[in-house]
């Protein structure tokens, strides 16, 4: 870069390259949070799909499969999420059940499942399966394995919840079951901004995705815990 020490360059050539459409691969606005990673030649990205930054999307493209993305519904991604990180976990390794590899996404978004008048932002972890090819009739070219759960980071003794996720570091282990996620969170405590680091083990995250889940009830127009028998295959499997 040679700042304050200019250098002469000889033999410089410029090769012409083709530009590709970056829609769904990165945000229009560079100030918007986004994340992405490449797995086996395919780009998994979490960003905004339109110029106004009102259509959040988790998308896969650039590879041999069809392009896949989330449905544009508030039950999938709500409002204007702040995407911060993504991680690839090879859960198929030595799996006795034929489990698929997963891609995890970390972000904050406005919650829709709580009965409160004030806007509430919560931290989330979402995942999709690498082998997801979409639905045959419904959810064509849409994720059929998309799941999301709340990331809880709190200080109970102060009744303080850290809901705004700022960064995530993935620490791999010798085996995928040793994977650990470290999240950096922020909250407002009185007039002071406070931060915390919380740790999540991959098996704890996996257990949350395999546990009880909520559904939207049209008559009550609110979210409630699903209480009937879990269908087989279960949602997101």
In percent, how much strand structure appears in the residues? 35-45%
Largest sheet: 4 strands, antiparallel
| Name of the CATH first level | Mainly Beta
What's the name of the CATH homologous superfamily? YVTN repeat-like/Quinoprotein amine dehydrogenase
Total helical segments = 1
CATH T-level fold name: Methylamine Dehydrogenase, Chain H
Q: Could you say which structural class the secondary elements and strand pairing correspond to?
A: mainly beta
Uncertain regions: pLDDT < 50 for 5+ in a row? none
Mean pLDDT, as a whole number? Answer: 87
- H/E topology pattern: EEEEEEEEEEEEEHEE
Report the C-alpha radius of gyration, rounded: 20 Å
C-alpha end-to-end distance: 50 Å
CATH architecture: 7 Propeller
Instruction: Give the fraction of residues assigned to helices.
Output: under 10%
Oligomeric status of the shown chains? single chain
- What is the overall silhouette? globular
Strand order of the largest sheet: 1-2-3-4
The overall strand count is: 15
Keywords: Glycoprotein
InterPro entries: Semap_dom, Semap_dom_sf, Semaphorin, WD40/YVTN_repeat-like_dom_sf
Protein name: SEM4C protein
GO molecular function, one term: chemorepellent activity
What is the topology?
Layout: E1 35-39, E2 42-48, E3 56-61, E4 68-69, E5 82-89, E6 102-110, E7 121-129, E8 147-151, E9 154-155, E10 160-161, E11 164-171, E12 180-189, E13 192-201, H1 202-209, E14 214-217, E15 222-225
Antiparallel strand pairs: 1-2, 2-3, 3-4, 5-6, 6-7, 7-8, 9-10, 11-12, 12-13, 14-15
Polypeptide structure, described:
It holds the Pfam family Sema. This is SEM4C protein. It comes from Himantopus himantopus (Black-winged stilt). InterPro entries: Semap_dom, Semap_dom_sf, Semaphorin, WD40/YVTN_repeat-like_dom_sf. It is built from one helix and 15 strands; from the N terminus they run βββββββββββββαββ. By secondary structure, the protein is mainly beta. The protein has a single domain, classed as Methylamine Dehydrogenase, Chain H. The strands form five sheets. It has a four-stranded antiparallel beta sheet with strand order 1-2-3-4, with no helix packed on it. A hairpin with a 4-residue loop joins strand 9 and strand 10. The chain is globular and about 70 Å long. The termini are far apart.
């Amino acid at each position: 870069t040679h700042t304050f020490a200019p250098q002469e360059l000889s033999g410089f050539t410029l090769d012409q390259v083709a530009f590709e459409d970056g829609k769904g691969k990165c945000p229009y606005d560079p100030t918007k949070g986004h994340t992405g990673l490449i797995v086996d030649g395919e780009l998994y990205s979490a960003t905004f799909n339109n110029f106004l930054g009102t259509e959040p999307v988790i998308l896969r493209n650039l590879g041999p499969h069809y392009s896949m993305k989330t449905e544009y519904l508030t039950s999938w991604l709500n409002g204007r999420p702040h995407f911060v990180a993504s991680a690839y976990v090879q859960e198929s390794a030595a799996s006795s059940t034929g489990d698929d590899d997963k891609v995890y996404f970390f972000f904050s978004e406005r919650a829709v499942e709580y009965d409160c008048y004030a806007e509430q932002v919560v931290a989330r972890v979402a995942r999709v399966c690498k082998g997801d090819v979409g639905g045959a009739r419904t959810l064509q070219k849409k994720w059929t394995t998309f799941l999301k759960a709340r990331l809880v980071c709190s200080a109970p003794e102060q009744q303080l919840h850290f809901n705004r996720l700022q960064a995530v570091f993935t620490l791999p282990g010798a085996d995928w079951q040793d994977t650990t996620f470290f999240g950096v969170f922020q909250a407002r405590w009185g007039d002071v901004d406070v931060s915390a680091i919380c740790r999540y083990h991959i098996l704890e995250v996996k257990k949350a995705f395999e546990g009880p889940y909520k559904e939207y009830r049209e008559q009550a127009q609110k979210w409630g815990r699903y209480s009937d028998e879990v269908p087989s295959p279960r949602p997101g499997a």
